[in-house]
Write a structure and sequence with these properties.
By secondary structure, the protein is mainly alpha-helical. 55% of the residues lie in helices and 0% in strands. It contains 1 helix and no strands. The chain is elongated. It starts with a helix and ends in a 37-residue tail after the last helix.
Length: 85
């Protein structure tokens, strides 16, 4: 009988602790996670655009496309056609 009452008491305490965690602990964890994500992305945004540009200022970035080098020992291209007799 003592074992059964102790088991019921254990589950009651477990149930109330779970309810308290859902009521207080989970919102705290979600709030903490959201604040960390906001800090992370706000720092990313500041690093992305560190200097403010004046209105009308234009910046041209010229990236030269690297041309692939042809393989010397590869051979030549042959275009085959169907021959009908």
């Amino acid at each position: 009988m003592k074992f059964f009452l102790g088991l019921i008491l254990f589950f009651v305490i477990l149930w109330y602790s779970f309810k308290l965690f859902l009521q207080y602990g989970l919102p705290w964890l979600v709030n903490r996670f959201m604040k960390k994500q906001q800090e992370k992305y706000s720092q990313f945004g500041q690093q992305q655009n560190p200097s403010e540009k004046k209105e009308g200022e234009v910046e041209i970035k010229n990236k030269k496309a690297a041309k692939p080098k042809a393989d010397e020992g590869f051979g030549e291209y042959v275009d085959f056609e169907d021959i009908k007799e």
